Amino acid sequence: VMKTTQSIRQDFLDFFRERGHTIVPSSTLVPGNDPTLLFTNSGMVQFKNVFLGSEKPGYVRAADVQRCLRAGGKHNDLDQVGYTARHHTFFEMLGNWSFGDYFKRDAILWAWELLTRVWGLAPERLLVTVYHTDDEAYGIWHDEVGVPADRIVRIGDNKGAPYASDNFWQMADTGPCGPCTEIFYDHGPAIPGGPPGSPDEDGDRYIEIWNLVFMQFDRQPDGTLLPLPAPCVDTGMGLERLAAVLQNVHSNYEIDLFQRLIRHAAALTGTEDLANGSLRVIADHIRACAFLIADGVLPSNEGRGYVLRRIIRRALRHGWMLGVRGAFFHRMLEPLVEEMGAAYPELVAGRETIEAALAAEEARFAETLDSGMKVFEDVAARASGGVIAGEDVFRLYDTYGFPVDLTADIARERGLRVDMPGFEAAMQAQRARARAASQFAGAVTLPAELASTLAPTVFDGYDAHTGEGRVLAI
Ligand code: ATP
Ligand code: MG
Ligand code: MG
Ligand code: MG
């Protein structure tokens, strides 16, 4: 029998509950404890103060399913969506945690037990990486678990950048940090002329499924690493990637949950080919958008709200590519609630707000999407040297509401690039004009990141194209 995504969530929590872990709820996508972070991008975000020692949670072992968004800020996978088999903007991260309790040995043995015994994965399909100096983790994998040496890869630091390695994790320039060990699944060699979504040459054969972080040092301002008095474990496993493995498909988009969303997207857009990449993007983006709105973000021209607006507009443009000329995207909410409402009651509770906000943004962009696409065709036709001029990118942005990443994404599909410095210059010029025209004496412009920490995200009017800056009267 096929393991459903829903039952995998449950298996994970049951496994760690039986091993003394307290099950904690997912925190929201908008981090409540960290104004410098745009979105919750991993499970550790809600435990940051626990790792730093300023918060004591009343348990030393925890497990959870954390909703994550990687579409802005430090982690941004938005441009991967539709191009790789394994990246989403919104995804769910399964995690188990030790706060000064168990360490490498238990974390590794349990991960292996869950993957190979509970879920029955063939050990010969799994590979692991360790940080190059972490002989302790290497020893556990090799001597206790029995992973042969040719399937354990030591990963060093990136050249010239100490500790800037995928296998050495740090929260910040100073503070808790430590080596990682990552578990990869081998989906098998590329199948020449194989079905869409079969492993290709682009690094999609070996897919990282689980990352185990061992926080054992406290980095000092001078760079030295002191041992932490109580080492911690932080693990993260992508639910959708795991579901792909357990459902014996290569791409995340072929799992049960995504297939149902894709079928709805196909019906709403009148698309017959279920493998059409635009359907995948739409299915991905409805999750990000719906959960962002459920967590209190609304489309706007700055900060988090602007990330949401950009994702919605990207989805609408994909609908447009499939020939849709009316509203459709907000109707993806209903199938999404059906898929994920049981695990996330906030989605059910926020239903009306989410649908209304999506529909409003859809109506707003509908006014300019069609003409903007025509303008795009014109400017693409006269792009010289494969580069769309900054002035044109700015016009699409300013007059047609095309966020620059949307224009860049359309350009990429045509093998074109956008002139970013030229766009920035046009933007600066417009800002200078706006400043000169401002009637408020002493008006200041704040960078978007800062502005969004001061003001709650609000539903700005479409016309308020103030770019990244927000003009505040003081
Ligand atoms: P990758 O190298 O494949 O981009 P990562 O190393 O950036 O992954 P981590 O930060 O280690 O990912 O996150 C822990 C786990 O979360 C990963 O092992 C993976 O299973 C999952 N994951 C990470 N990014 C995504 C994404 N964009 N979409 C879906 N799952 C993801
Ligand atoms: Mg990544
Ligand atoms: Mg990685
Ligand atoms: Mg990783």
Automatic annotation (TrEMBL):
Consists of three domains; the N-terminal catalytic domain, the editing domain and the C-terminal C-Ala domain. The editing domain removes incorrectly charged amino acids, while the C-Ala domain, along with tRNA(Ala), serves as a bridge to cooperatively bring together the editing and aminoacylation centers thus stimulating deacylation of misacylated tRNAs. The keyword Nucleotide-binding applies. Catalyzes the attachment of alanine to tRNA(Ala) in a two-step reaction: alanine is first activated by ATP to form Ala-AMP and then transferred to the acceptor end of tRNA(Ala). Also edits incorrectly charged Ser-tRNA(Ala) and Gly-tRNA(Ala) via its editing domain. The keyword Ligase applies. Binds 1 zinc ion per subunit. Its cofactor is Zn(2+). Its main location: cytoplasm. This is Alanine--tRNA ligase. Belongs to the class-II aminoacyl-tRNA synthetase family. Residues 3-474 form the Alanyl-transfer RNA synthetases family profile domain. Its EC number is 6.1.1.7. GO terms for molecular function: alanine-tRNA ligase activity. The lineage of its organism: Bacteria, Pseudomonadati, Pseudomonadota, Gammaproteobacteria, Lysobacterales. It is found in: Cytoplasm. It catalyses: tRNA(Ala) + L-alanine + ATP = L-alanyl-tRNA(Ala) + AMP + diphosphate. Keywords: Aminoacyl-tRNA synthetase, ATP-binding, Cytoplasm, Ligase, Metal-binding, Nucleotide-binding, Protein biosynthesis, RNA-binding, tRNA-binding, Zinc.
